[in-house]
Write a structure and sequence with these properties.
Helix content: over 70%
Oligomer: single chain
CATH superfamily of the largest domain: Tetratricopeptide repeat domain
Largest sheet: none
CATH architecture of the largest domain: Alpha Horseshoe
Shape: elongated
Length: 204
């Protein structure tokens, strides 16, 4: 078979989870073209899947030497190192991948995972949030803010009704002042959570 045919067949074997056969086919490609980085990276992944970390690392190192500005290869090496429990070195490679492509949400997410393994909670949280933002996923804080905003929208008609029916009493005052006084916002959230009712000791 030709080089391209061997490569295509190798990919087919990867999909079938026949990693040993895929390694043989990618090796044929590399015998014809030792600098084929696609074959090197694919064979590296196959070696990783059969837990041969040494050969996996050797192949991805070779790919990086040929294409040092391709962030995906640093991600691959970082992932291999993470599987070897070398999280600190893995982090350096993920950081390089992010440096080469700051919009790579997967690299940022995996960087955060590696940082978690090192106990670097703040850095991990920051990168998780960056990854979520790029991927269009709301952060926990944004989801919380959205829920509060939605609750405010839902309660606004009730707030108007309370003002009409209980003009001058404490319920009406809370509903009215929450939109003008920041200090009352916490009390308003509690008001929502309590089913739009004040606590008994507040209804006097």
């Amino acid at each position: 078979m030709t080089k391209d045919a061997n490569f295509a067949q190798g990919l087919s074997k990867v999909k079938e989870n026949d990693h040993f056969a895929a390694i043989d086919l990618f090796t044929l490609v590399l015998k014809e073209d030792p600098k084929d980085t696609n074959a090197l990276s694919q064979r590296a992944v196959c070696y990783l899947n059969i837990l041969d970390y040494k050969k996996s690392l050797a192949d991805i190192n070779a790919a990086i030497a040929i294409e040092p500005d391709y962030g995906y290869y640093y991600q691959c090496r970082a992932y291999i190192k993470a599987n070897m429990k070398d999280y600190e070195s893995s982090i350096k490679d993920y950081e390089k991948a992010v440096e080469l492509d700051p919009q790579d949400s997967i690299a940022l997410n995996n960087l955060a995972l590696a940082q978690e393994q090192m106990g670097w909670a703040k850095q991990a949280e920051s990168n998780f949030n960056k990854s979520d933002k790029i991927a269009g996923i709301k952060t926990a804080q944004e989801r919380s803010d959205q829920r509060i905003t939605e609750n405010i929208k839902e309660v606004t008609p009730i707030e108007n009704k309370l003002e009409e029916e209980t003009s001058g009493d404490s319920k009406g005052k809370i509903a009215k002042s929450v939109f003008t006084k920041k200090s009352n916002f916490k009390e308003f959230v509690s008001f929502i959570k309590n089913g739009f009712k004040l606590k008994e000791n507040d209804e006097s």
